[in-house]
TrEMBL record:
Protein's job: Part of an ABC transporter complex. Responsible for energy coupling to the transport system. Probably part of an ABC transporter complex. Responsible for energy coupling to the transport system.
Gene Ontology, cellular component aspect: ATP-binding cassette (ABC) transporter complex
Protein name: ABC transporter ATP-binding protein
Residues annotated as signal peptide: none
Biological processes, Gene Ontology terms: cobalt ion transport
Organism listed in the record: Leptolyngbya foveolarum
One function term, GO molecular function aspect: ATP hydrolysis activity
Classification via Pfam families: ABC_tran
Bilayer disposition of the protein: Peripheral membrane protein
Domain ABC transporter: start-end pairs: 3-239
UniProt keyword Acyltransferase, yes or no: no
Family in the record: Belongs to the ABC transporter superfamily.
Location in the cell: Cell membrane
Length: 239
């Protein structure tokens, strides 16, 4: 098991009502997972629990069958293995130029300069950022910023990549490019989990679909089985 959630509860400090309630889920290596549900159902909270940004109010998150440690050093190591791309890429772009942004995480790891240069060069080429290497991050289009945000995580070579609404605000051409990028990432051995409202993407991309409603997982199965239950999906605001 790559990562598992066991009877997870999570309550935000300012909200007396739990966001997640008794949630249990297993993610195995190598599959493409999609998490669907209405806004506020807990998808983003689940992702932030997965890489230790949040700590559950109750229950246990396990990585490689070991409970997460919330010590700073342990979380630092975890986030090299569990990458999270936010819905708004501007939340995680920190440097002035594309090349500087890609090198930022590697510099924090204390890697030798030669290795940093090699990895940055490989990532720029792999994510088709060559023409943008010296470009100011602030002037990138939203689609380019999303590509850079994913590249920022993938340069760390994580085993699990979580993407929160990756197709939001993208035009059809950018969505096609994103899908191609995700296929390449999976082929290199990274397990993918996306939270999305794009049911067309889910239907023909995912290996396994997780349906959330009001802080709980109410159904999980292969896409054909999930979308055969149209009446149920409509009752929870999905169609």
């Amino acid at each position: 098991m790559l990562i598992s959630f066991e009877q997870i509860n999570y309550t935000y400090p300012c909200n007396p009502k739990p966001t997640l309630r008794g949630l249990s889920l297993d993610i195995t290596a190598g599959k493409r997972y999609a998490v669907i549900g209405q806004n506020g159902c807990g998808k983003t909270t689940l992702f932030r629990l997965a890489n230790g940004l949040y700590q559950p109010s109750a229950g246990t998150v396990r990585w490689n069958n070991q409970p997460l440690s919330y010590r700073r050093a342990a979380l630092y190591q975890l986030r090299q293995q569990v990458g999270l791309v936010f819905q708004n890429p501007e939340e995680q772009l920190v440097a002035a130029t594309v090349e500087e942004d890609l090198s930022y995480g590697l510099c924090n790891l204390g890697l030798p300069d030669a290795e940093i240069e090699q990895r940055v060069g490989q990532t720029i080429e792999a994510f088709e950022l060559t023409d943008l290497a010296d470009f100011p991050v602030n002037y990138l289009s939203l689609g380019q910023k999303k590509r850079l945000a994913i590249a920022d995580i993938m340069i760390l070579r994580p085993r699990l990549l979580l993407l929160d609404e990756p197709t939001a605000y993208l035009d059809p051409g950018q969505v096609r490019n994103l899908r191609q990028m995700l296929s390449t990432i999976q082929a290199e051995g990274t397990t993918l989990v996306i939270a999305t409202h794009d049911l067309n993407l889910v239907q023909d991309w995912a290996d396994w679909v997780i349906v959330m409603n009001q802080g709980q997982i109410v159904m999980e199965d292969v896409p054909t089985a999930i979308f055969s239950r149209q009446h149920f999906l409509k009752t929870i605001g999905l169609s």
